[in-house]
Amino acid sequence: MADDGRRGDEDDRGPGAAHQVFVVMECLLEKLKVLNYEEEVLAKHNMKNLSRHYFVSSPYLASNPGEQFYMFTIIAAWLINMAGRPFAEPQEYDEPNATVSNILAELRAFGVKVDFPPSKLKSGSGEYVCLVLDRLAEEALRRRGFSFRRPNYPTENTEEESVIEDDAELTLSKVEEEMIEEPDDEEENVMDLEALKLRTTHTEAEPSTKPDEILESTVDAAEWNLEVERVLPQLKVTIKTDNKDWRIHVDQMHQHRDGIKSSLKEANSYLDKLQEDIGKTLEKVSSREKYINNQLEHLIQEYRSVQAKLSEVKERYQQGSGGVTERTRILAEISEELDKVKQEMEEKGSSMSDGAPVVKIKQSLTKLKMEIVQMDVRIGVVQHTLLQAKLKEKSNMTRDMHATNIPEPAAGPF
């Protein structure tokens, strides 16, 4: 259905829309040459020069999708860098979807509206590939400050047409003067008209002597014929023709008209026969078409019904694919949580099976016992010191008591 819509758009654009991509590709190649892509891209990657229709997708042109896609990504990355935005050069084994998405993101950053899916660029050729490269080339040229200008044609000064003397009507004297002034090497044996004229005038000036008797020739007829054949080439009088003479043009027009009439008669007969044959063929085709339509009417109806069912199944598939996508996302989230739980369980299991805590506990107990022994010793020392203090205090108290209980001596008289 999308293909039908696309085909409808091309019909709206005109019959020459299918060939517009050839013009865009030729303009793109000129822009790349201005940017000196031969030395900066082709020589660097050891690639061959691009042809005029390299990125054009046509059944009449040889195609290599892998090579064309790699060339497209390399040139696009170079143009983006030339336009002033940093872009990493793609490698041969990079993910195509990620590379195309990055190129379209940079194209949108230049303010270009992208109204086509990225999958159109994965083939490496076609209208959208040429469009993307052309817009990137324009941005690179704008960054460099280069712009194509219209050619300035020099204004021609219209000179006044000089009145050329009409040489159509030539007099015999003028022809004779031209023949005398411009002798032709091929007409050396042709009799000179001026000399003939002078000879005739000279003979007219001399007094005419009329013979009194009938003249009879004494020359042999065979010798006379030989002399005539020898002199005959010299008796030709040729007048040099001028292409400017209107009489020559008229004669040529008459000749062409006669040729056209004769050709037209012959062509009319062939065209009438061809028309008759075409009419018969059209009648046969129309009758055969009606017969085929009658025979295939039920198949056409079945095809339409199957096509309607196919559209319904496609709609169901789209709805189901949407649910599958949602469930796939949920499954991915659950899988992530499960991975986390598994990782925690592995950590706890490894810690439980490890003997390091037991060793630490034993070391702590040993240290605690040592501290208890030390504490007991200290307690014994303190008790002994306390006992000594108590005994000392008791002895002091006993001594004090004995000191206070001593009887006083009796006082007697002296």
From TrEMBL:
Pfam family, one: IFT57
Annotated coiled-coil segments of the chain: 264-351
Alphabetized InterPro entries for the sequence: Intra-flagellar_transport_57
Chief location of this protein within or outside the cell: other
GO biological process: intraciliary transport; non-motile cilium assembly
Keywords: Cell projection, Cilium, Coiled coil
This protein's record includes keyword Coiled coil: yes
Annotated compartments: Cell projection, Cilium
GO cellular component, as recorded: cilium; Golgi apparatus; intraciliary transport particle B; microtubule organizing center
PANTHER family noted in UniProt: IFT57/HIPPI (PTHR16011), INTRAFLAGELLAR TRANSPORT PROTEIN 57 HOMOLOG (PTHR16011:SF0)
Family: Belongs to the IFT57 family.
This protein's name: Intraflagellar transport protein 57 homolog
Organism: Lates japonicus (Japanese lates)
Top-level taxonomy: Eukaryota, Metazoa, Chordata, Craniata, Vertebrata
